[in-house]
Amino acid sequence: MDTSTIEHAVAAWGRYTVETSTDPDLPAALLADLRAAAGADPVPAETTPGLLATVVARDGERVAGWAVLTDEGAPAATVRWTLTERQTDRLVDGFPLFIGLSDQELALLAALIDAAATLARDQDRTALLWSSTDDEIDYQLALALGATEDRELSRQWLIPGLPIWAPPADIPTARTACVATEPTGPDLAGYADLRAAVTGHPHRPDDLRLELAALEADLRADLRAGCGAVLAELSVVCSGAKAVIGRVWHHGAFPLELAALIAHAVRELRARHPEVLLVEITEERDRVLWQALVALGLRVSTRRLAYRLPLRAFP
């Protein structure tokens, strides 16, 4: 950040007033107010596990943003923030309209992080951890505050040039299926069993039906064993020229079988949605999926990281 940017950021910082609260209902109330202002449907209010405090930044009477400080059982505290304008854009348009942080937004986040760091330090925490859904914001804030990478959370793999992309010739065929219709009762039962195997927690088919309906996928693909048990399942969501596979659920599948599933889904996607030019696949420290993506010849496009800010940076 050059000198002029620092001066602008410092000047912007002074416009915000920051309040702190330990009210357990405040995060849900702030989110409800934001959704109402954006014209979005209300969601059930949920409490925040391990809540230590909520920091609210106001620009006059307007809530410009807030940060929730939580204890997740480590010497460090975790902070998660919401920037009101960006989140409103995401609710109204489906995505934020801004890339990177403006000086004013950086000042807003710095004010929130400063207050959260003071609270965490007063409760004998050694550091602040954070990650958001925007890698560019995380990196820019870390650079400005002197935070370091703590760990890698996930990687995004890219299939560019979809109309001409082809999987390697040695990818085998597997018992895969792709459909664009709603899952049947037996499908849901199989997917629920798969999620239970992956997470170690029971899943109900009816809950899964609602989850898949909310996802509004344009294509669904699964991999099955000879007995019919579901070994892997994925959903593809299209947005203009881009398609996203947010997660590949799998248990008991080999890497090359997952590669065959993804290759089949991509072929079907190309036939059903010729407007799609690239596919992004999220992999969350998943060695089997990582091996499948490498076998397909794909490369990592971006990494989502968690950052650590030592609290000695705030004497």
List the helices and strands and how they pair.
Layout: H1 3-13, E1 17-21, H2 26-38, E2 51-59, E3 62-70, E4 77-83, H3 84-93, H4 103-122, E5 127-130, H5 135-145, E6 148-159, E7 176-179, H6 185-199, H7 205-215, E8 219-224, E9 230-239, E10 242-245, E11 248-250, H8 255-272, E12 278-283, H9 287-295, E13 299-310
Parallel strand pairs: 4-5, 10-12
Antiparallel strand pairs: 1-2, 2-3, 3-4, 5-13, 6-12, 6-13, 7-8, 8-9, 9-10, 9-11
Helix pairs in contact: 1-4, 2-3, 6-7, 8-9
Q: Averaged pLDDT, please?
A: 86
Sheet-strand content, in percent, reads 25-35%
Shape: elongated
Helix-strand makeup class: alpha+beta
Share of helix, binned: 25-40%
The counted number of beta strands is 13
Q: How many helical stretches?
A: 9
Major β-sheet, in short? 13 strands, mixed
Low-confidence stretches: 1-11
Order of helices and strands: HEHEEEHHEHEEHHEEEEHEHE
Tell me the radius of gyration.
22 Å
Beginning-to-end CA distance, first to last residue: 22 Å
Keywords:
315 residues; alpha+beta; 13-stranded mixed sheet; disordered N terminus
What does this structure look like?
Strand 8 and strand 9 form a beta hairpin. It contains nine helices and 13 strands. By secondary structure, it is of the alpha+beta class.
Short description:
The chain has 315 residues and is α+β, with helices and mostly antiparallel strands. It has helices at 3-13, 26-38, 84-93, 103-122, 135-145, 185-199, 205-215, 255-272, 287-295; strands spanning 17-21, 51-59, 62-70, 77-83, 127-130, 148-159, 176-179, 219-224, 230-239, 242-245, 248-250, 278-283, 299-310.
